[in-house]
Design goal:
Strand content: 5-15%
Shape: globular
Mean pLDDT: 91
Strand order of the largest sheet: 3-4-5-6-7-8-9
Order of helices and strands: EEHEHEHEHHEHEHEHHEHHHHHHH
Bound molecules: iron/sulfur cluster
CATH class of the largest domain: Alpha Beta
CATH architecture of the largest domain: Alpha-Beta Barrel
Low-confidence stretches: none
Largest sheet: 7 strands, parallel
Number of strands: 9
Radius of gyration: 20 Å
Number of domains: 2
Length: 372
């Protein structure tokens, strides 16, 4: 998704150097998706040209919103094989399926039988789903099918957000590998940290970079199987490989592990709503992703406008056809009684809608939903 680009097209020369260098140094898992512009085709081209397909596991994703029938899924899958120049996908995901109802719709068109046939004939190795919804939706989805693996957003700032640590632990209890995306929160945990956060990290270990802290938090956890970091420059690849080479579960000392609590607290001092992401208020009968809205709203103040808006549009505005955004709240009041933090959820959601849903964001969300 984050392949380097030259003007409007992917910079194939740079991409090839990155991919081949990564493989030579032991990277063996490549994650792409049908909807990432040019990504599958460029990856397929590089792997075929260098004859290295057999050295890697390929992961790609089915855009389930485009599958009104099983024929749609079949057509997309065939196109993916052709783009990736392969006869099988090692790790196949239902892309961003954040609502149990969406899985219900796929079941109704026969997705389970389709997956079983694809696994049987070897075209799909492992089946999983990628996820950006709320924790209780994740738990329901996890139990809704006999998945082989899961892919979730997870990093030290998202410990209680989306699937969160509880989601990682539940997957591990089921014996499922956990593939982590957004380890650096789209780069926000790598650069531009609030000054107080930077100070805490430096005081704990001046040698470690912000990237090293964020990656180590994940690689320290035995339930984390793969960390997907969207590298688009050789320096990023070098840094990530150097960190991974020195990492193993349980490597953080007690002193190092203790640094994340004050760091998260320092981030949170910039927050507007004291939501802990506990999910007790969920589900909302109108489909509002309450903790998701608050988390993105807070990120806007702690990490900057673009970080917050990106989270908001992705996680709250577009996770289903109807939208899970703050403006969808009908003020029924069901959630407020359940919040242990006594947050005035209705009033706060109004503030979120005002700040996070200007006309151009509403317009963008409406366009994207049309294609879901
Ligand atoms: S008040 Fe709004 S957010 Fe809360 S449960 Fe009702 S519709 Fe959902
Ligand atoms: S119950 Fe309160 S603290 Fe918990 S997720 Fe909902 S709003 Fe946040």
């Amino acid at each position: 998704m984050r392949f380097p680009r030259r003007a409007v097209a992917t910079d194939k020369e740079k991409v090839e150097k990155l991919i081949i260098s990564a493989i030579e140094r032991g990277v063996n898992y490549f994650d792409t998706a049908y909807i990432y512009p040019e990504s599958e085709a460029v990856l397929g081209e590089v792997l075929a040209k260098n004859n290295v397909r057999s050295k890697v596991y390929l992961a790609t994703k089915l855009p389930h919103g485009r599958c009104k029938s099983i024929e749609d899924a079949e057509k997309i899958f065939s196109e993916q094989l052709s783009r990736l120049r392969t006869d099988h996908i090692d790790y196949y995901l239902i892309h961003n399926i954040s609502k149990p109802e969406s899985w219900g719709k796929l079941k109704a068109i026969g997705i389970e039988e389709w997956i079983a046939a694809k696994k049987q004939n070897g075209q799909i190795g492992q089946i999983g789903f990628s996820f950006h919804g709320s924790q209780d939706e994740y738990m329901q989805l996890l139990d809704a099918y006999d998945w082989d693996f899961v892919q979730i957003q997870y990093n030290y700032m998202d410990e209680n957000y989306q699937a969160g640590r509880a989601g990682v632990e539940k997957a591990a209890q089921k014996g499922l590998p956990v593939i982590v995306m957004e380890p650096l929160l789209g780069g926000k945990l790598a650069t531009g940290l609030p000054r107080e956060v930077d100070k805490i990290f430096k005081a704990a270990n001046p040698e470690r970079s912000a990237v090293s802290w964020a990656m180590s938090w994940l690689l320290d956890q035995s339930a984390v199987t793969v960390v997907l970091s969207g590298m688009n420059a050789m320096e990023q690849l070098d840094e990530n490989i150097a960190i991974a080479d020195l990492s193993e579960p349980g490597m953080l000392s007690a002193q190092e592990a203790a640094v994340f609590e004050p760091v998260a607290e320092a981030f949170k001092r910039h927050y507007k709503v004291d939501c802990t992401g506990c999910n007790y208020c969920m589900p909302c009968p109108s489909g509002v992703n309450i903790p998701g809205c608050f988390s993105a709203y807070n990120a806007r103040y702690a990490m900057g406008y673009y970080a917050g808006m990106q989270m908001y549009v992705l996680n709250s505005g577009m996770s289903n056809k109807k939208g899970s955004n703050a403006r969808s709240c009908t003020k029924c009041g069901a959630c407020e009684k359940k919040c242990p933090q006594h947050i005035r959820i209705i009033a706060e959601l109004e503030a979120v809608a005002k700040k996070m849903e200007p006309w151009y964001v509403r317009g963008a969300m409406a366009v994207v939903r049309k294609f879901m």
